[in-house]
Design brief:
5 helices; 171 residues
Length: 171
């Protein structure tokens, strides 16, 4: 059965590789390790063969939780695993007495937007020209890209109604 567990340092290389496959500006091993060190809620999704097929990072900031990154390998997308991970994150934020869960998403990422909409996220605002649309041409990512051209949609999920629905223990 596919399931998730807390991310640990042994996961960082494979999570970074998955990020590189999915994102034009991927998180690297150092960035992922920083999230582990700073107490973010970091999960890895494992296949039935114990292969890492997804991940999620949520960072707490006071009573807010921020979805920093989430991804599922292409071969496992459109099967509900992104929803599975995100619901796990929502439950964690509720257990931690979070007030709100925030994220930003590329305006063009329609599958992610549909997922967030289906879970009750609402649009807060649009950040104009937030994302660049090119992939850095070097391994270091230091070559300049054109000015950002794609908007980010900042979305929020109020956790107050979820608190009352699930009770004080978050279950």
């Amino acid at each position: 059965m596919i399931g998730s567990r807390p991310m640990d340092p042994s996961d960082l290389e494979s999570v970074a590789a998955c990020e590189a496959e999915l994102s034009p500006f991927p998180w690297n091993v150092t960035m992922l390790a920083d999230e582990l060190r700073h107490g973010s809620f970091c999960r890895v999704l494992l296949s039935e063969e114990n292969e890492r097929i997804g991940y999620m990072l949520l960072r707490p900031i006071l009573d807010e939780w921020h979805l920093m990154t989430i991804g599922v390998t292409r071969s496992h997308q459109r099967q509900g695993w992104g929803r599975y991970l995100l619901l796990e994150g929502i439950r964690h934020a509720v257990r931690q007495q979070g007030r709100v869960l925030l994220l930003d998403v590329r305006a063009s990422n329609l599958p992610a937007r549909r997922l967030y909409d289906s879970l009750g996220f609402r649009l807060l605002h649009r950040r104009r020209h937030y994302y660049s649309s090119c992939r850095p041409a070097s391994a270091s990512g230091c070559l300049p890209c054109p000015a950002p051209t794609e908007d980010a949609l900042v979305m929020e999920l109020s956790l107050a109604s979820i608190h009352s629905a699930v009770g004080p223990d978050g279950d």
